[in-house]
Specification:
Number of helices of chain A: 13
Helix content of chain A: 25-40%
Oligomer: homodimer
Strand content of chain A: 25-35%
Number of strands of chain A: 19
Largest sheet of chain A: 9 strands, mixed
Structural class of chain A: alpha+beta
Distance between the termini of chain A: 40 Å
Largest interface: A-B, 43 and 43 residues
Shape of chain A: globular
């Protein structure tokens, strides 16, 4: 028995074997699949893929290279700018009341004319980072005058999913903007128009490796007077279940993080996917993802993502079951030793009720559309 | 905590909620779905459905009502007749060496001209029951001269699955023939041409409710001299993992069976589906099924089933994980009491390696094609 892997480790490995086959990379399609190919080969098995030559015909791929075009087209549009000191919004940060613990910090959201907002993105530096994003279908509302530059949906995807996109979001950021590990209860078609996005992907079966715990919600506030951010806890306290793992800890924190989160750092590596301008990523529902970006020559990364409703089917039921199993049930002390898991770490996995309202919290815990998805999943 | 259901019970219930929606029956389609509808609505979510008006155009639906037509067309065909004393082949039976334990009993298979074989099916009675079946693609081999009476595949299904049927099997039996609970590593399109089939269906998530255990393989042998069957254990001993539950115990055994298999008898009821002549059942891969039948006015039930290769995807990985969890991990003594599970029942769940070679054993443990599927699943 000592030599055998635990069931949960077998599960992590088997999903990798099934997803990658004999490759070490996710599938890369040189052109969009047919609806049946997409549904059969990727959506049904909940398997990501990278797709080239799917947006070559979008006017956006050329027009948006011109910053003048963007500011001109959106000259009278008011947009939502997310401001943080570090570029990390919807991420864990030291709790302002007791800095030895963490809180879930959201950006300050400012509504201002696009040209001013874009300037703030371009002039970002550590201390004040702007990210143009709002996961409330912003591409079809705030950025409506750009909509004609992209297709309103991907025909092959809409046919496969059996519906039109529930939300389309625009993202304009720079190299400082980063999105922490989370999952969405949506099928996601993620198109990069300029710059590059770097995804780390983990299948839903790796849920215990994310160390999802509850953190009190907090929000950044920028003071014009001091030119500094303060972080304020929400009152009354609202707890947000969130992934604890930062996959890129600073060198001085690395050892500590590896000791705190051994299942992540000592387990199988995440799938690494770079999505270049003109490529799209199919990011299946419920996959955990972390996103960094490299800007184009102007210093911008621009992407549009299409969220489609996911199916709540047997896969979802299996996920809920898996997530509800306490960590102690899944690894015996002997083999968790192999994973570097010291028994003194009391790994608290949220109970299943808390968890089912997580994930949805996800991309933006304060987001309306995401909360709608949440309602869908509750019985 | 005492009031809460265990995670495994939540899983059983959630899959039912997702499969049935607000209905108490599986979906019944009045005509065949499109490939996309079928893949999206049924195959991907691993959800059964009943379909009417899919085989109206088959010559079989009229021609096979004539026994004369069948014997005439197959007058020179040699077919495989499965003979058992009770109609229950590939089922548990008292072990001939130690009758207090059970063995896995297979039929005696005789190869004889179709007209003689059909006579034995029609003249079956308790003591000697004949069932014309062989799960080795027999419809396209032994019964090749009937093939033109049915379509060679279902276009909408083949498009959805992305392949042609791996095997097509014919079944000609009577009211005594019964198939015990098992699962197949195939997608199954099951068409009833005459008579009715009664299915009990359980989703793969109910695996622990089947009490899969290992039983020594045995085979019936019919003696022309005595007119009786003997049951002989295979030598060397070969163990077959098989479902322990008989869903229709005789009245005098019922209480004992309910005590032995409380998770089955006290848990959620199986889905009951009657497939009438002219209807087809989509029986998703990995679903446990038990089959009984009602004959037509001649005393025959005739069906053709199409096995398509299944996808070994994240659902399969989740299943293997679930199955590998020992029963003791899933129900605590308090709540298993609620299920009627007495702690003295030492429920042995086969380990995951044994199990992965089960299921495939399934419909016919001695079957070539089924063993091929087995190979596929091994890594």
């Amino acid at each position: 028995m000592e030599e055998e892997e635990e069931p949960i480790q077998n599960l992590w490995q088997e999903v990798r074997d099934l997803t990658l086959g004999t490759s070490t990379q996710i599938n890369h399609l040189s052109s969009p699949p047919t609806p049946l190919q997409f549904l059969r080969g990727y959506v049904s098995p909940n398997k990501p893929c990278l797709i080239s030559n799917a947006v070559n015909h979008w006017p956006a791929t050329t027009l948006w290279q011109s910053t003048h075009y963007l500011t001109n087209t959106l000259s009278s549009s008011t947009v939502s700018l997310h401001l943080t000191p570090t570029g990390r919004a919807d991420a864990l940060s030291p709790n302002p009341i007791s800095p030895s613990s963490l809180c879930f910090a959201s950006a300050e959201v400012k509504h201002l004319p696009f040209p001013d907002a874009l300037t703030q993105v371009l002039e970002s530096e550590m201390g004040c980072v702007g990210y143009l994003q709002q996961q409330n279908d912003c591409f079809r509302s705030e950025y409506g005058s750009l909509s004609k530059d992209c297709d309103s949906d991907f025909g092959w995807a809409s046919e496969a999913f059996g519906c039109l996109p529930e939300a389309v979001n625009l993202w304009i950021g720079n190299e400082l903007s980063e999105t922490s590990f989370h999952k969405d209860h949506y099928e996601n078609i993620y198109a990069v128009v300029s710059g590059e996005k770097h995804f780390l992907l983990l299948p839903p079966t790796d849920v215990h490796r994310m160390y999802i715990r509850e953190y009190p919600a907090a929000e950044y506030h920028y003071s014009q007077d001091t030119g500094k951010f303060s972080l304020e806890l929400e009152e009354p306290v609202r707890n947000v279940p969130w992934c604890s793992v930062n996959p890129y800890p600073s060198p001085e924190l690395k050892e500590k993080e590896m000791t705190k989160f051994p299942l992540y750092f000592n387990g199988p590596r995440p799938f690494e996917v770079t999505v270049k301008a003109g490529e799209i990523l199919y990011l299946p529902s419920m996959w955990f993802h972390h996103v960094k970006q490299c800007p184009d020559s102007r210093g911008l990364t621009i992407a549009v993502n299409y969220w489609y409703d996911m199916q709540f089917d047997i896969k979802y039921a299996y996920f809920n079951f898996l997530q509800s199993l306490p960590h102690s049930m899944l690894c015996d002390p002997a083999s968790s030793g192999k994973l570097g898991l010291e028994s003194q770490h009391n790994i608290s996995i949220c109970n299943s009720e808390d968890e089912s309202s997580m994930g949805d919290g996800t991309a933006s815990a304060s987001d309306k559309l995401v909360h709608d998805a949440d309602d869908t999943t509750e019985k």
